[in-house]
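Final report, closing paragraph on structural work. Over the funding period we assembled a curated collection of sequence-structure pairs, and we close with a single example.
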Amino acid sequence: MKYLILGAGPAGLAFANRLLQNGIDDFLVIEKEDEAGGLCRSKDTGGAPLDIGGGHFLDVRNPKVLDFLFPFMSEELWDKYDRDSRIVINGNTINSPIEANIWQMSLEDQVQYLKSIAVAGCNLGKEMPEKFVDWIYWKLGDKIAEDYMIPYNRKMFGEDLNELGTYWLNKLPNVSFEETLISCLEKKAYGSQPGHARFYYPKEYGYGELWLRLADRLGDRIRYGEAVDKLDVDGLTVNDTYKAEHIITTVPWTDIKEYKGVDEAYLKDMEELKHTSVVVEYIDEKLDTSAHWIYYPDPELSYHRILVRHNFCPGSRGYWTETNLTRHQKSGDSASVSAKSSGKAKNVIYDRDNCFINKYAYPLNTIGKEEIMKRLLSYMKERNITGLGRWGEWQHYNSDVVVDRALTLADELSR
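Its predicted structure, as stored:
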């Protein structure tokens, strides 16, 4: 075939459907799981859809992406929301991001946070440090660092935060003492909103319904239950079965068991790529809040955030938690999780009716990762193998970003 697409998550599905729109039908998608959608799949849980890969939403800001997706699932089938995300910190429940909403804290806490921000290294003109933890103190001050950023990131990414680089943190807003002080005096947020400030969510379905519809459009050009066990780079073949002129991989490089024809240096590079696994667990309890999701830096709680399903999924109840797998195992509810996760080959495991384990959840921005991926992607591209999406590029992309990149790649290759 002309194109072999590895993985039927948002990246692979968007790329394949764009090829069809561009008049190219000589391709095949192979998918390890029994259905399409990747981390954006949904399952009926507690009488309503639950997104088993965690919180995923369709951002409203990219018309190119929306124009592509709405013909599969029309805009009338979606509700639009203004994001309501919150943080529970030191007895305060405030809106996110923290640096814009300190004014919602108690007066005593506002004073302490303002004093801390005033002497943060970036506000005093000190040189930017290289280590992740030092950078957090330098950027945000010791109060935000110790009360929120450090404990939250440890819960989400792991205990050794200095494994992480600082190259990806520049997207955090500048924390100006003057602006923060004004926001506390005027009692309103300042600065720009984070991603998903406005978002779409289906009226009658989980987010996974969108990707099932993209998969349906492909017909017999998609095959399920087909893991990528072997990739022959020189022969452009997969599993000694499928051969293509060009391979588009959206699956984790580290999940492919065997490579043929790859220089040893690049195999060693792949060994340096790190990721986290996440457990999503449904709780059948209605919360008295209008928030869509809430962040919890408290290290005594195993989970790092909850998604309040009944506030964005009409007719539902309950919420789900997201917990780093290692923390989930340490919390005491780990025996069946451990057995299941070691005994199955699939990337999503159904431990119970209300608990889902995602082996590949977040790619980690470790020190040296950017250089590794630059070398790896360049090496593979020279051999007609292109990495695409969250796992193909090893970047923490949201689904709308993934679709945008897939459309751009398909259009480039279709010329």
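Confidence is low (pLDDT under 50) at residues 334-345. Residues 142-157 form the longest helix (16 residues). We thank the funder for supporting this effort.
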